Amino acid sequence: KIASCKMQIANCNLYCFNFSDVAKSYNIFFFAYVKLFEEERKILLNCFFVIRIDGCDFKKFIKLHNYEKPNDIRGLQLMNACAINVLNKFNEIDLSFGHSDEYSFLFRKNTKLWNRRQDKILTNVVSYFTSSFLFKWKTFFPDQELLYPPNFDARLIIYPSEKEVIDYFSWRQADCHINTQYNECFWNLVLKKNYTHEEAYKFLLTTQTKEKNELLFTEFNINYNNIPIIFRRGTIIIRNKMYKKNKSHNMDNNKQTNAITDAITDHTTQLTTII
Fold this sequence. Notes:
alpha+beta; 2 domains; tRNAHis_GuaTrfase_Thg1_sf
Protein backbone atom coordinates (compact mmCIF):
# COMPACT_ATOMS: atom_id res chain seq x y z
CA LYS A 1 0.00 0.00 0.00
CA ILE A 2 2.82 2.38 0.84
CA ALA A 3 4.50 1.65 -2.48
CA SER A 4 1.20 2.15 -4.29
CA CYS A 5 0.65 5.51 -2.58
CA LYS A 6 4.18 6.65 -3.48
CA MET A 7 3.56 5.75 -7.11
CA GLN A 8 0.28 7.66 -7.15
CA ILE A 9 1.97 10.71 -5.59
CA ALA A 10 4.79 10.51 -8.14
CA ASN A 11 2.32 10.29 -10.99
CA CYS A 12 0.37 13.22 -9.57
CA ASN A 13 3.51 15.34 -9.31
CA LEU A 14 4.49 14.42 -12.83
CA TYR A 15 1.04 15.32 -14.11
CA CYS A 16 1.05 18.64 -12.28
CA PHE A 17 4.49 19.46 -13.63
CA ASN A 18 3.43 18.81 -17.18
CA PHE A 19 0.28 20.84 -16.71
CA SER A 20 2.35 23.74 -15.45
CA ASP A 21 4.52 23.60 -18.56
CA VAL A 22 1.45 23.57 -20.77
CA ALA A 23 0.05 26.56 -18.90
CA LYS A 24 3.28 28.48 -19.37
CA SER A 25 3.36 27.64 -23.05
CA TYR A 26 -0.24 28.76 -23.39
CA ASN A 27 0.52 32.06 -21.70
CA ILE A 28 3.47 32.66 -24.00
CA PHE A 29 1.32 31.85 -27.01
CA PHE A 30 -1.54 33.98 -25.72
CA PHE A 31 0.64 37.08 -25.34
CA ALA A 32 2.74 36.48 -28.44
CA TYR A 33 0.33 38.55 -30.54
CA VAL A 34 2.18 41.68 -29.36
CA LYS A 35 4.98 40.78 -31.77
CA LEU A 36 2.60 41.69 -34.56
CA PHE A 37 3.16 45.32 -33.63
CA GLU A 38 6.88 45.06 -34.39
CA GLU A 39 7.92 46.48 -37.72
CA GLU A 40 10.61 44.61 -39.60
CA ARG A 41 11.94 46.88 -42.31
CA LYS A 42 14.29 45.37 -44.86
CA ILE A 43 16.69 47.24 -47.11
CA LEU A 44 15.85 47.03 -50.80
CA LEU A 45 17.70 44.30 -52.66
CA ASN A 46 20.55 45.16 -55.04
CA CYS A 47 20.94 48.67 -53.64
CA PHE A 48 23.88 50.33 -51.97
CA PHE A 49 23.25 51.79 -48.56
CA VAL A 50 25.16 54.18 -46.35
CA ILE A 51 25.03 54.52 -42.59
CA ARG A 52 25.99 57.98 -41.36
CA ILE A 53 26.86 58.40 -37.70
CA ASP A 54 26.78 61.87 -36.19
CA GLY A 55 27.62 63.16 -32.72
CA CYS A 56 24.68 64.42 -30.64
CA ASP A 57 25.16 67.81 -28.97
CA PHE A 58 28.90 67.57 -29.64
CA LYS A 59 29.44 71.32 -29.25
CA LYS A 60 28.81 70.86 -25.54
CA PHE A 61 30.92 67.69 -25.44
CA ILE A 62 34.02 69.21 -27.06
CA LYS A 63 33.76 72.32 -24.91
CA LEU A 64 33.62 70.39 -21.63
CA HIS A 65 36.42 68.06 -22.75
CA ASN A 66 38.76 70.87 -23.79
CA TYR A 67 39.11 70.12 -27.48
CA GLU A 68 41.56 72.42 -29.24
CA LYS A 69 40.13 75.07 -31.57
CA PRO A 70 39.49 75.20 -34.47
CA ASN A 71 40.49 71.54 -34.98
CA ASP A 72 41.74 68.90 -32.58
CA ILE A 73 43.79 66.16 -34.23
CA ARG A 74 43.24 63.90 -31.21
CA GLY A 75 39.51 63.94 -31.72
CA LEU A 76 39.83 63.12 -35.42
CA GLN A 77 42.28 60.30 -34.75
CA LEU A 78 39.88 58.88 -32.17
CA MET A 79 37.02 58.96 -34.67
CA ASN A 80 39.25 57.28 -37.28
CA ALA A 81 40.18 54.52 -34.83
CA CYS A 82 36.50 53.91 -34.10
CA ALA A 83 35.73 53.73 -37.83
CA ILE A 84 38.50 51.16 -38.37
CA ASN A 85 36.99 49.13 -35.54
CA VAL A 86 33.66 49.19 -37.34
CA LEU A 87 35.26 48.05 -40.62
CA ASN A 88 36.93 45.19 -38.79
CA LYS A 89 33.64 44.17 -37.22
CA PHE A 90 31.51 44.38 -40.36
CA ASN A 91 33.19 42.88 -43.42
CA GLU A 92 30.38 44.09 -45.67
CA ILE A 93 31.67 47.68 -45.44
CA ASP A 94 34.22 48.53 -48.13
CA LEU A 95 34.65 52.27 -47.65
CA SER A 96 34.07 54.92 -45.04
CA PHE A 97 34.56 58.67 -44.88
CA GLY A 98 34.65 60.92 -41.85
CA HIS A 99 35.28 64.45 -40.68
CA SER A 100 34.52 66.40 -37.52
CA ASP A 101 32.04 64.35 -35.46
CA GLU A 102 30.53 62.29 -38.29
CA TYR A 103 31.36 59.10 -40.20
CA SER A 104 29.72 57.47 -43.22
CA PHE A 105 29.96 53.75 -44.00
CA LEU A 106 29.25 52.28 -47.44
CA PHE A 107 27.83 48.74 -47.54
CA ARG A 108 28.03 46.52 -50.61
CA LYS A 109 24.85 46.29 -52.62
CA ASN A 110 24.76 42.48 -52.37
CA THR A 111 25.24 42.23 -48.60
CA LYS A 112 23.07 39.69 -46.81
CA LEU A 113 23.98 40.84 -43.33
CA TRP A 114 21.12 39.99 -40.92
CA ASN A 115 18.94 39.36 -43.94
CA ARG A 116 19.19 43.11 -44.67
CA ARG A 117 17.10 44.02 -41.63
CA GLN A 118 17.46 47.78 -41.42
CA ASP A 119 17.01 48.30 -37.68
CA LYS A 120 19.33 45.41 -36.82
CA ILE A 121 22.16 46.73 -39.00
CA LEU A 122 21.71 50.37 -38.03
CA THR A 123 21.63 49.81 -34.27
CA ASN A 124 24.60 47.43 -34.29
CA VAL A 125 26.82 49.80 -36.28
CA VAL A 126 26.09 52.91 -34.20
CA SER A 127 26.33 51.06 -30.87
CA TYR A 128 29.66 49.49 -31.84
CA PHE A 129 31.03 52.86 -32.95
CA THR A 130 29.93 54.47 -29.68
CA SER A 131 31.39 51.73 -27.50
CA SER A 132 34.67 51.97 -29.45
CA PHE A 133 34.75 55.72 -28.73
CA LEU A 134 34.46 55.05 -25.00
CA PHE A 135 36.94 52.16 -25.11
CA LYS A 136 39.63 54.14 -26.96
CA TRP A 137 39.15 57.50 -25.25
CA LYS A 138 42.19 57.23 -22.96
CA THR A 139 44.44 56.27 -25.87
CA PHE A 140 43.95 59.67 -27.52
CA PHE A 141 43.06 61.81 -24.50
CA PRO A 142 45.26 60.39 -21.72
CA ASP A 143 45.18 63.60 -19.67
CA GLN A 144 41.48 64.35 -20.07
CA GLU A 145 38.93 62.52 -17.95
CA LEU A 146 35.79 61.46 -19.77
CA LEU A 147 33.18 63.48 -17.89
CA TYR A 148 30.15 61.77 -19.38
CA PRO A 149 29.51 59.25 -22.15
CA PRO A 150 28.88 60.78 -25.59
CA ASN A 151 26.09 59.56 -27.81
CA PHE A 152 25.76 59.32 -31.57
CA ASP A 153 22.71 59.16 -33.75
CA ALA A 154 22.61 57.33 -37.07
CA ARG A 155 20.61 57.16 -40.24
CA LEU A 156 20.54 54.68 -43.10
CA ILE A 157 20.18 55.92 -46.67
CA ILE A 158 19.55 53.66 -49.68
CA TYR A 159 21.09 54.52 -53.06
CA PRO A 160 20.08 52.71 -56.26
CA SER A 161 23.27 53.24 -58.29
CA GLU A 162 26.91 54.25 -58.17
CA LYS A 163 26.07 57.78 -59.33
CA GLU A 164 24.15 58.55 -56.14
CA VAL A 165 26.88 56.98 -54.04
CA ILE A 166 29.53 59.17 -55.69
CA ASP A 167 27.39 62.28 -55.29
CA TYR A 168 26.73 61.46 -51.64
CA PHE A 169 30.40 61.17 -50.70
CA SER A 170 31.31 64.20 -52.81
CA TRP A 171 28.69 66.15 -50.85
CA ARG A 172 30.11 65.04 -47.50
CA GLN A 173 33.66 65.93 -48.56
CA ALA A 174 32.54 69.34 -49.79
CA ASP A 175 30.82 69.84 -46.44
CA CYS A 176 34.13 69.07 -44.72
CA HIS A 177 35.87 71.82 -46.72
CA ILE A 178 33.14 74.40 -46.07
CA ASN A 179 33.04 73.70 -42.33
CA THR A 180 36.82 73.79 -41.96
CA GLN A 181 37.18 77.08 -43.81
CA TYR A 182 34.44 78.67 -41.72
CA ASN A 183 35.78 77.32 -38.42
CA GLU A 184 39.30 78.52 -39.18
CA CYS A 185 38.00 82.04 -39.74
CA PHE A 186 35.58 81.97 -36.82
CA TRP A 187 37.99 80.73 -34.16
CA ASN A 188 40.86 82.93 -35.30
CA LEU A 189 38.58 85.95 -34.98
CA VAL A 190 37.52 84.81 -31.50
CA LEU A 191 40.91 83.69 -30.18
CA LYS A 192 43.21 86.24 -31.84
CA LYS A 193 40.98 89.27 -32.44
CA ASN A 194 38.87 88.91 -29.28
CA TYR A 195 35.60 88.83 -31.18
CA THR A 196 32.59 87.49 -29.33
CA HIS A 197 30.90 84.47 -30.88
CA GLU A 198 28.03 86.62 -32.09
CA GLU A 199 30.37 89.24 -33.57
CA ALA A 200 32.38 86.60 -35.43
CA TYR A 201 29.20 84.99 -36.72
CA LYS A 202 27.83 88.29 -38.04
CA PHE A 203 31.18 89.21 -39.59
CA LEU A 204 31.33 85.95 -41.57
CA LEU A 205 27.64 85.81 -42.43
CA THR A 206 27.94 87.35 -45.90
CA THR A 207 31.50 86.29 -46.80
CA GLN A 208 32.26 83.94 -49.68
CA THR A 209 35.04 81.39 -50.13
CA LYS A 210 37.47 83.87 -51.68
CA GLU A 211 36.87 86.42 -48.94
CA LYS A 212 37.41 83.86 -46.20
CA ASN A 213 40.72 82.78 -47.75
CA GLU A 214 41.79 86.42 -47.99
CA LEU A 215 40.82 87.03 -44.36
CA LEU A 216 42.91 84.10 -43.17
CA PHE A 217 45.92 85.19 -45.19
CA THR A 218 45.87 88.96 -44.57
CA GLU A 219 44.78 88.98 -40.93
CA PHE A 220 46.32 85.78 -39.59
CA ASN A 221 49.02 84.88 -42.13
CA ILE A 222 47.35 81.53 -42.76
CA ASN A 223 47.35 80.00 -46.23
CA TYR A 224 44.28 77.80 -46.32
CA ASN A 225 46.00 75.31 -48.61
CA ASN A 226 48.69 74.79 -45.96
CA ILE A 227 46.20 73.73 -43.30
CA PRO A 228 46.66 69.98 -42.64
CA ILE A 229 44.80 68.10 -45.30
CA ILE A 230 43.02 65.86 -42.79
CA PHE A 231 41.15 68.98 -41.66
CA ARG A 232 40.34 70.15 -45.19
CA ARG A 233 39.35 66.88 -46.88
CA GLY A 234 38.54 64.49 -44.07
CA THR A 235 39.61 60.86 -43.86
CA ILE A 236 38.91 58.00 -46.26
CA ILE A 237 39.23 54.46 -44.96
CA ILE A 238 39.12 51.77 -47.64
CA ARG A 239 39.78 48.05 -47.53
CA ASN A 240 43.20 47.14 -48.85
CA LYS A 241 41.85 44.50 -51.26
CA MET A 242 39.46 47.06 -52.75
CA TYR A 243 42.22 49.65 -53.03
CA LYS A 244 44.46 47.25 -54.95
CA LYS A 245 41.72 46.60 -57.49
CA ASN A 246 41.41 50.28 -58.35
CA LYS A 247 44.52 51.53 -60.12
CA SER A 248 42.93 54.55 -61.78
CA HIS A 249 43.04 57.03 -58.92
CA ASN A 250 46.04 59.21 -58.11
CA MET A 251 47.30 58.82 -54.56
CA ASP A 252 50.67 59.87 -53.14
CA ASN A 253 52.54 58.38 -50.21
CA ASN A 254 50.60 60.26 -47.53
CA LYS A 255 48.72 57.17 -46.40
CA GLN A 256 48.91 54.76 -43.51
CA THR A 257 48.64 51.01 -44.08
CA ASN A 258 47.58 48.87 -41.14
CA ALA A 259 48.34 45.18 -41.54
CA ILE A 260 45.96 44.23 -38.75
CA THR A 261 42.95 46.07 -40.11
CA ASP A 262 43.80 45.47 -43.78
CA ALA A 263 42.68 49.03 -44.40
CA ILE A 264 44.21 52.16 -45.87
CA THR A 265 43.66 55.52 -44.22
CA ASP A 266 44.05 58.39 -46.66
CA HIS A 267 43.55 62.14 -46.46
CA THR A 268 44.86 63.23 -49.84
CA THR A 269 42.37 61.95 -52.37
CA GLN A 270 39.02 63.20 -53.55
CA LEU A 271 36.40 60.55 -52.95
CA THR A 272 35.11 60.57 -56.52
CA THR A 273 38.42 59.18 -57.78
CA ILE A 274 38.24 56.22 -55.41
CA ILE A 275 34.61 55.33 -55.92
